[in-house]
Structure prediction request, 526 residues.
Amino acid sequence: MILLYDTTLRDGTQAEDISFSVEDKVRVARSLDELGVHYIEGGWPGSNPRDIEFFKAVAAEKLSRAALVSFGSTRKAGVKAKDDANLKALLSSRTPVITIFGKTWKLHVTKALRVSLEENLEMIFDSVSYLKKKVDKVFYDAEHFFDGYKDDPAYALETLKAAEDAGADYLVLCDTNGGTLPFEVAEIMREVKLRTSVPVGIHAHNDSETAVANSLCAVREGAMMVQGTINGFGERCGNANLCSIIPALKVKMGLDCLSGEQLKKLRSTARFVNEIANLPHAKHQPYVGDSAFAHKGGIHVSAILKNPATYEHMMPELVGNHQRVLVSDLSGRSNILYKAEEYGVDIKSGSDVVRDVLAELKSLEHQGFQYEGAEASFELLIQKALKKKQRYFKLLDFRVIDEKRSEDEAPHAEATIKLEVGGVVEHTAAEGSGPVNALDKALRKALERFYPAIKDVQLLDFKVRVLEGMQGTAAKVRVLVESGDSADKWGTVGVSDNVIEASWQALVDSLEYKLSKDQRKKKSRK
Prediction:
């Protein structure tokens, strides 16, 4: 069994742009427990009031598997362990496990702590032995261990011996600066295992883009605990990413760390933590990212339709992900057939429709359209080719006015729109915080009388990209819109040298897709 030690709530919060409230931390702790990690490091109760409040709040939670851990440093120089404020704060958190870190690298002992090498050993021994009498388990994090070992192997090993003699349950080797390479980790791990009898763990940082590799190398050399964070959050370049480490351990190396059912929660856990941190999901993240099992090239798609193993290193469902096929100007017939089947549209392999859709797709992408993030627009394209696309309304006219009445006032936007729905003309207007927002409001206002379901649609994201920078302000722009209702999310696209027209195209596709989707659902219920 490889123990998983999550430090998202402590080390992860040291990342730039991440700040969790107490309630945020409690919710993340619940999610980590549901995933099945063995230890959740909640914070450093001696360093800030928020972590103190978190340990009070989380005490009421009934975690099913994970043990809570509080984190801190060894006692200060010249202070008895029983009188040290930091150790008292750790004990006040009332966690069954405490992790303390101590100095391993002589540079830090003499320059940062400014104590003798012998006194540093005493600080480690005193702190671990004192805490071990008070709590179930004490883990010792050997800070800067790999740098310290490379500087002076004998002293680095002495610091581990001090913690081991004091009763530490685990010795965790930390690559705190993140500069150690995998082959170095393997060599040093072998030496440590020869000279210690206590189980060893690994805590890697990602400054050399090797944190995951270093963690796996350490496990291969005998480490029984891996410390890391969800999505690799952490100071500077981040910590070892548990979202990559866990499936590598379980699926690739065949080591027990989570059950198969727990592993299926990995993607949802990664996304949940991103949402709580208010960060966008990393599309290209291995295993759990949207693009991790996405296929774009026609040859690739043709092959995975026959056997997914041709271009997938594992089954995406194992980590709660799924296979995706993208459509672009690189697409072949296989992409079109795959997407058509996904939308429930029956197109035969030899059909002229496939050829027509493929030709139009490549023509539109040459103009600047992009369907990788606008699959709703692509579905409407297929419906049009099949002559099944329904016209829900006809535009007769729209006008957008963006007016700034004085230098100190914000601009004022208003849109007027005239539509025809089933022979009935609707003429209305709306104001907005900008011209696109005003147009969106006017369009909805005009249509809600005929299609009340549109009230359920929310605009979730709006992106504008300039396609031809050399043209300056006359350049074409692509607008990508993400919309959603209570059940789904979908993307649509528009392209024009007029940003209002490009936005109009994407907004219209969004509402037409909603109406088409609802219509299909009604038919399927009959």
About this structure: The first strand starts at residue 3 and ends at 6. The mean pLDDT is 90. The radius of gyration is 29 Å.
